[in-house]
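We store sequence with structure; for instance:
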Amino acid sequence: MTSFRARHRATAVAASEGTCPRCGTPRRPDQRYCLECGLALPVVSGRLASLRRRWIERFGWYPGDWVWASLLTLVLAIAGAGVAIALTHKTSPHGASFITSPPVAPTTAPITIAPTSTSAPVTTSRVTTTTAKPTTTTTAAAGPVNGSYTWPATENGWTVVLVSYPKTTGHDDAVRTAGEAAKSGLPQVGVLDSSLYASLQPGYYVVFTGIYGSKSDADAAVSTARQAGFGGAYSRQVAR
Protein backbone atom coordinates (compact mmCIF):
# COMPACT_ATOMS: atom_id res chain seq x y z
CA MET A 1 0.00 0.00 0.00
CA THR A 2 2.85 2.38 0.89
CA SER A 3 4.71 1.72 -2.36
CA PHE A 4 1.47 2.18 -4.31
CA ARG A 5 0.90 5.57 -2.69
CA ALA A 6 4.52 6.65 -3.16
CA ARG A 7 4.41 5.66 -6.82
CA HIS A 8 1.27 7.66 -7.50
CA ARG A 9 2.57 10.71 -5.63
CA ALA A 10 5.77 10.62 -7.64
CA THR A 11 3.59 10.54 -10.75
CA ALA A 12 1.66 13.54 -9.40
CA VAL A 13 4.90 15.51 -8.94
CA ALA A 14 5.93 14.70 -12.50
CA ALA A 15 2.49 15.71 -13.80
CA SER A 16 2.56 19.03 -11.90
CA GLU A 17 5.91 19.95 -13.49
CA GLY A 18 5.52 18.33 -16.90
CA THR A 19 1.97 19.33 -17.86
CA CYS A 20 -0.29 22.38 -17.83
CA PRO A 21 -2.42 22.34 -14.62
CA ARG A 22 -5.47 23.58 -16.56
CA CYS A 23 -5.60 21.47 -19.73
CA GLY A 24 -2.89 18.81 -19.18
CA THR A 25 -0.85 19.71 -22.28
CA PRO A 26 2.85 18.67 -21.96
CA ARG A 27 5.26 21.53 -21.27
CA ARG A 28 9.02 22.20 -21.18
CA PRO A 29 10.77 23.24 -17.94
CA ASP A 30 11.64 26.69 -19.40
CA GLN A 31 8.18 27.27 -20.89
CA ARG A 32 6.29 30.25 -19.39
CA TYR A 33 2.87 29.86 -21.04
CA CYS A 34 0.80 26.86 -22.16
CA LEU A 35 0.76 26.59 -25.95
CA GLU A 36 -2.74 25.10 -25.87
CA CYS A 37 -4.75 27.29 -23.46
CA GLY A 38 -2.39 30.23 -22.78
CA LEU A 39 -2.21 29.72 -18.99
CA ALA A 40 0.77 31.26 -17.18
CA LEU A 41 2.62 28.09 -16.12
CA PRO A 42 4.06 27.61 -12.61
CA VAL A 43 7.85 27.64 -12.29
CA VAL A 44 9.55 24.25 -11.89
CA SER A 45 12.77 25.46 -10.27
CA GLY A 46 13.62 27.39 -7.14
CA ARG A 47 12.16 27.46 -3.64
CA LEU A 48 8.49 27.65 -4.70
CA ALA A 49 8.83 24.55 -6.88
CA SER A 50 10.57 22.73 -4.01
CA LEU A 51 7.71 23.60 -1.63
CA ARG A 52 5.22 22.39 -4.23
CA ARG A 53 6.97 19.01 -4.52
CA ARG A 54 7.08 18.53 -0.76
CA TRP A 55 3.37 19.33 -0.47
CA ILE A 56 2.42 16.77 -3.13
CA GLU A 57 4.75 14.13 -1.66
CA ARG A 58 3.18 14.68 1.77
CA PHE A 59 -0.52 15.00 0.91
CA GLY A 60 -0.81 13.53 -2.61
CA TRP A 61 -2.47 16.65 -4.09
CA TYR A 62 -1.74 20.37 -4.48
CA PRO A 63 -4.25 23.26 -4.25
CA GLY A 64 -2.09 25.73 -6.24
CA ASP A 65 0.71 28.25 -5.65
CA TRP A 66 -1.81 30.66 -4.09
CA VAL A 67 -1.74 28.58 -0.90
CA TRP A 68 1.63 30.04 0.18
CA ALA A 69 0.39 33.64 0.02
CA SER A 70 -2.70 32.61 1.99
CA LEU A 71 -0.59 30.93 4.68
CA LEU A 72 1.64 34.01 4.94
CA THR A 73 -1.42 36.25 5.33
CA LEU A 74 -2.77 33.95 8.06
CA VAL A 75 0.54 34.04 9.96
CA LEU A 76 0.67 37.84 9.76
CA ALA A 77 -2.94 38.08 10.98
CA ILE A 78 -2.19 35.84 13.97
CA ALA A 79 0.94 37.85 14.77
CA GLY A 80 -1.01 41.12 14.55
CA ALA A 81 -3.67 39.77 16.91
CA GLY A 82 -0.97 38.78 19.38
CA VAL A 83 0.59 42.25 19.31
CA ALA A 84 -2.82 43.88 19.83
CA ILE A 85 -3.50 41.68 22.86
CA ALA A 86 -0.06 42.45 24.29
CA LEU A 87 -0.62 46.22 23.92
CA THR A 88 -3.96 46.14 25.70
CA HIS A 89 -2.63 44.02 28.56
CA LYS A 90 -0.64 46.37 30.82
CA THR A 91 1.05 45.91 34.19
CA SER A 92 0.87 48.43 37.06
CA PRO A 93 4.02 49.46 39.11
CA HIS A 94 2.86 47.15 41.93
CA GLY A 95 2.80 44.14 39.63
CA ALA A 96 -0.98 43.97 39.22
CA SER A 97 -2.24 43.37 35.71
CA PHE A 98 -5.24 45.05 34.22
CA ILE A 99 -6.92 45.32 30.83
CA THR A 100 -7.42 48.75 29.35
CA SER A 101 -10.71 49.47 27.64
CA PRO A 102 -11.64 52.30 25.30
CA PRO A 103 -13.26 55.37 26.92
CA VAL A 104 -17.03 55.47 26.93
CA ALA A 105 -18.60 58.61 25.48
CA PRO A 106 -20.71 60.53 28.06
CA THR A 107 -24.44 60.29 27.59
CA THR A 108 -26.65 63.35 27.49
CA ALA A 109 -30.16 63.23 28.89
CA PRO A 110 -32.75 64.04 26.24
CA ILE A 111 -34.42 67.47 26.43
CA THR A 112 -38.21 67.34 26.38
CA ILE A 113 -40.07 70.36 25.06
CA ALA A 114 -43.63 70.67 26.26
CA PRO A 115 -46.20 71.15 23.50
CA THR A 116 -47.75 74.64 23.20
CA SER A 117 -51.21 73.26 22.59
CA THR A 118 -53.43 72.67 25.57
CA SER A 119 -54.86 69.52 24.07
CA ALA A 120 -53.07 66.24 24.53
CA PRO A 121 -51.18 65.07 21.47
CA VAL A 122 -52.66 62.17 19.58
CA THR A 123 -50.20 59.48 18.68
CA THR A 124 -50.99 57.05 15.91
CA SER A 125 -49.04 53.81 15.86
CA ARG A 126 -48.63 51.75 12.73
CA VAL A 127 -47.78 48.10 13.11
CA THR A 128 -45.99 46.58 10.17
CA THR A 129 -45.90 42.84 9.89
CA THR A 130 -43.10 41.36 7.80
CA THR A 131 -43.31 37.77 6.76
CA ALA A 132 -39.90 36.27 6.10
CA LYS A 133 -39.72 34.14 3.01
CA PRO A 134 -38.37 30.67 3.71
CA THR A 135 -34.95 29.99 2.25
CA THR A 136 -34.50 26.65 0.58
CA THR A 137 -31.01 25.26 0.24
CA THR A 138 -30.44 22.40 -2.13
CA THR A 139 -27.48 20.15 -1.33
CA ALA A 140 -26.22 17.54 -3.75
CA ALA A 141 -26.36 14.03 -2.36
CA ALA A 142 -22.91 12.82 -1.37
CA GLY A 143 -21.74 9.56 -2.90
CA PRO A 144 -19.65 6.82 -1.29
CA VAL A 145 -16.15 7.90 -0.28
CA ASN A 146 -14.60 4.42 -0.41
CA GLY A 147 -14.28 4.11 -4.19
CA SER A 148 -17.50 2.17 -4.74
CA TYR A 149 -19.57 4.86 -6.46
CA THR A 150 -22.01 3.32 -8.94
CA TRP A 151 -22.70 4.94 -12.30
CA PRO A 152 -26.48 5.65 -12.61
CA ALA A 153 -28.14 2.93 -14.67
CA THR A 154 -30.13 5.30 -16.91
CA GLU A 155 -27.68 8.18 -17.21
CA ASN A 156 -25.16 9.04 -19.94
CA GLY A 157 -22.47 11.63 -19.51
CA TRP A 158 -18.75 12.36 -19.31
CA THR A 159 -16.18 11.28 -16.73
CA VAL A 160 -12.46 11.27 -15.99
CA VAL A 161 -10.82 7.87 -16.53
CA LEU A 162 -8.01 7.26 -14.02
CA VAL A 163 -6.81 3.74 -14.91
CA SER A 164 -8.11 0.77 -16.93
CA TYR A 165 -7.36 -2.89 -16.09
CA PRO A 166 -8.03 -6.00 -18.22
CA LYS A 167 -11.08 -7.90 -16.98
CA THR A 168 -9.19 -11.20 -17.02
CA THR A 169 -6.83 -10.25 -14.15
CA GLY A 170 -7.52 -6.69 -13.05
CA HIS A 171 -10.58 -6.75 -10.76
CA ASP A 172 -8.70 -6.56 -7.45
CA ASP A 173 -6.29 -3.92 -8.78
CA ALA A 174 -9.20 -1.79 -10.01
CA VAL A 175 -10.97 -1.95 -6.64
CA ARG A 176 -7.76 -1.10 -4.77
CA THR A 177 -6.98 1.81 -7.07
CA ALA A 178 -10.52 3.18 -6.69
CA GLY A 179 -10.15 3.09 -2.92
CA GLU A 180 -6.85 5.00 -3.05
CA ALA A 181 -8.34 7.58 -5.43
CA ALA A 182 -11.28 8.17 -3.10
CA LYS A 183 -8.94 8.59 -0.11
CA SER A 184 -6.97 11.21 -2.05
CA GLY A 185 -10.10 13.38 -2.21
CA LEU A 186 -11.34 12.75 -5.75
CA PRO A 187 -15.16 12.81 -6.02
CA GLN A 188 -17.53 10.04 -7.15
CA VAL A 189 -14.89 7.34 -7.62
CA GLY A 190 -15.99 3.94 -8.85
CA VAL A 191 -15.29 1.07 -11.25
CA LEU A 192 -17.08 0.48 -14.59
CA ASP A 193 -17.33 -2.70 -16.61
CA SER A 194 -16.49 -1.26 -20.04
CA SER A 195 -18.31 -4.10 -21.81
CA LEU A 196 -21.64 -2.64 -20.65
CA TYR A 197 -21.11 0.72 -22.38
CA ALA A 198 -21.05 1.26 -26.14
CA SER A 199 -18.73 4.27 -25.85
CA LEU A 200 -15.98 2.28 -24.08
CA GLN A 201 -13.57 -0.36 -25.34
CA PRO A 202 -14.93 -3.71 -24.05
CA GLY A 203 -12.91 -6.01 -21.82
CA TYR A 204 -11.72 -3.62 -19.10
CA TYR A 205 -12.43 -2.51 -15.57
CA VAL A 206 -12.35 1.30 -15.77
CA VAL A 207 -11.63 3.33 -12.63
CA PHE A 208 -13.43 6.68 -13.00
CA THR A 209 -14.06 9.87 -11.02
CA GLY A 210 -16.95 12.30 -11.46
CA ILE A 211 -20.08 12.44 -13.62
CA TYR A 212 -20.26 15.51 -15.87
CA GLY A 213 -22.80 16.82 -18.32
CA SER A 214 -20.30 17.98 -20.96
CA LYS A 215 -16.80 17.25 -22.24
CA SER A 216 -15.56 20.71 -21.19
CA ASP A 217 -16.56 20.06 -17.57
CA ALA A 218 -14.78 16.71 -17.59
CA ASP A 219 -11.68 18.23 -19.24
CA ALA A 220 -11.52 20.84 -16.46
CA ALA A 221 -11.34 18.05 -13.86
CA VAL A 222 -8.50 16.16 -15.57
CA SER A 223 -5.72 18.31 -14.06
CA THR A 224 -7.08 17.69 -10.54
CA ALA A 225 -6.97 13.94 -11.13
CA ARG A 226 -3.40 14.16 -12.44
CA GLN A 227 -2.22 16.19 -9.47
CA ALA A 228 -3.82 13.56 -7.20
CA GLY A 229 -1.34 11.03 -8.59
CA PHE A 230 -3.01 9.77 -11.78
CA GLY A 231 -0.78 11.23 -14.48
CA GLY A 232 -2.52 9.33 -17.28
CA ALA A 233 -6.03 10.57 -16.46
CA TYR A 234 -8.21 11.70 -19.40
CA SER A 235 -11.85 12.58 -20.10
CA ARG A 236 -14.17 10.06 -21.74
CA GLN A 237 -17.84 9.81 -22.66
CA VAL A 238 -19.86 7.09 -20.93
CA ALA A 239 -22.95 6.03 -22.87
CA ARG A 240 -24.88 2.78 -23.24
User: Anything to note?
Assistant: The CA atoms of residues 197 and 237 lie 10 Å apart. Residues 132-142 have pLDDT under 50 and may be disordered. Residues 2-68 form one domain.
